[in-house]
Design brief:
The chain contains five helices and two strands. By secondary structure, it is mostly helical. The chain has a single domain (7-76, 84-150), classed as Four Helix Bundle (Hemerythrin (Met), subunit A) (Up-down Bundle). It has a two-stranded antiparallel ribbon. Strand 1 (124-125) and strand 2 form a beta hairpin. Helix 2 packs parallel to helix 4. The mean pLDDT is 94.
């Protein structure tokens, strides 16, 4: 299963990010390519503990939701509502300069994968609850993959 702890999977995500441009068309959803870049950047800052996100109400036990989302090999559903702090229309980072925002995203991804780590993983995820490093690295890959597929990258 793909994870950002695997150098080949990390390189794949960076290569696909390079294909994203401001005019990249979406296949589903409402975000523009620039909003998606900022959304991913916000989520990775949350992983790093640099952005606070409130716990979200969930209909299923967080442990079950986390296991299904991270370890069942099916594509994520489309239209899953992001936490307000990660939604560029609500409380997320507003797109300003595409190349700078994309560079910031890549820097966060690089920091997440760097060894040794210079941060402590965020203790909990707003939907999934407590997460291990293995979980965070899997989520980091899956979240990028989901949104890059959204923009056919």
């Amino acid at each position: 299963m793909k994870t950002l702890s695997n150098p080949k999977d990390k390189e794949e995500i960076f290569r696909r990010l390079e294909a994203i441009h401001p005019a990249s068309g979406r296949r589903w959803g409402k975000m523009s390519a620039h909003q998606m870049v900022c959304h991913l950047g916000d989520s990775y800052r949350m992983f790093l503990g640099e952005k606070s996100v409130s716990p979200a109400p969930v209909a299923y036990p967080r442990t079950l939701l986390r296991w299904v989302a991270l370890w069942v090999p099916v594509p994520w559903p489309r239209g899953f509502k992001a936490a307000p702090e990660l939604d560029q229309q609500v409380g997320g980072t507003r797109p300003v300069e595409f190349e700078k925002d994309k560079r910031n995203l890549c820097e966060s991804l690089e920091r997440i994968t760097r060894q040794p780590r210079d941060f402590e993983w965020q203790q909990t995820h707003p939907h999934f609850g407590r997460m291990s490093e293995k979980d965070w690295m899997r989520l980091a890959y899956l979240h990028a993959d989901h949104h890059l597929r959204q923009f056919a990258a």
